[in-house]
Amino acid sequence: MSFLPSTRLTRGGLPLAGLSSGDHSGQSKPGACPAGLVCGCLGFDSRTARILGQPGRLQEKGSGRRGRNLKEWLREQFCDHPLEHCEDTRLHDAAYVGDLPTLRSLLQEESYQSRINEKSVWCCGWLPCTPLRIAATAGHGNCVDFLIRKGAEVDLVDVKGQTALYVAVVNGHLESARILLEAGADPNGSRHHRSTPVYHASRVGRADILQALIRYGADVDVNHHLTPDIRPPFSRRLTSLVVCPLYISAAYHNLPCFRLLLQAGANPDFNCNGPVNTQEFYRGSPGCVMDAVLRHGCEAAFVSLLVEFGANLNLVRWELLGTESRGRRKVDPEALKVFREARSVPRTLLHMCRVAVRRALGKRRLRLIPSLPLPDPIKKFLLYEEN
């Protein structure tokens, strides 16, 4: 199973909207193609972006006509209205620069109120987006809040299937992410996009953003059902750990995120809701999260956490493990020692009871533990907060 993570191309927290083709000085050139933004929004590499940005190089599919302007083509294909109706982009432009007074003034008019959820190409942009999506990308929390209060839909997706919350997380804007979550944004992003806010926060090590997502009910495991509301007769089996938030947090050695995911109920073995087919895993790839932690040279703390949260140590072919080179890294000697000791010493009954209780509750109900009629020390014990 392949996974295509979203590209993040930003400067100072903002998209590279003002960069022209081949020019990364930050000075825009009228009519030039900002290669960075094309790459980030449409998934093109820089060479393709430069080609597309040159007049006469873009050919409309099926028409045989050349010389189409890329920005005009994007407007025609993806904007909500015909090109002639998308010339007035003041609402979108104000959202991009964080001009709240202009937003207030424009949205006093009924014509602009009806366009608050309109996807359009704004002054420095190329990908058609709603004003809310633009403000969330740039991290203008006050504008995000105002647009929501004026009726902006929080979970509308762009042509890539990205929600406003997802782009806020990708660009590291905690305030905007919190505002969207409080307004009811889906913490899992959109099922039309293959990455999730949780996955990205885990990859880049933003424990603060990850904690906010978890607080609002984000799923910390992978769900392979394309339509979660309608269970299909079959579902895709997990054939690679790369899609798992727990795996990616370990691969990038983000221990705080790793701990948060486990505390929130992430599966410590495969981090997946659906069926797993280890026979389809790539040859030589890790067979479970513990295997991945050891192979990536993670420190002993990662191993200890997996042991504490009930990982199945028998899934790892420990007799083949050693401190010799495994790909880019070497197995951490201390981590390997902790793993082997855990394999040789039976878990205590207390440890096994905690794991069993948490599994019986299920990850969706772990947050209800503080409300149980139990002594505080037991609640903290079940939540791994005793230390």
TrEMBL record:
It comes from the Eukaryota. ANK repeats lie at residues 130-159, 160-192, 193-225. One of its GO terms (molecular function) is ubiquitin protein ligase activity. One of its GO terms (cellular component) is ubiquitin ligase complex. Pathway: Protein modification; protein ubiquitination. Keywords: ANK repeat, Developmental protein, Repeat, Ubl conjugation pathway. The keyword Repeat applies. One of its GO terms (biological process) is ubiquitin-dependent protein catabolic process. Residues 343-387 form the SOCS box domain. Belongs to the ankyrin SOCS box (ASB) family. This is Ankyrin repeat and SOCS box protein 1. It comes from Chinchilla lanigera (Long-tailed chinchilla). The gene is ASB1.
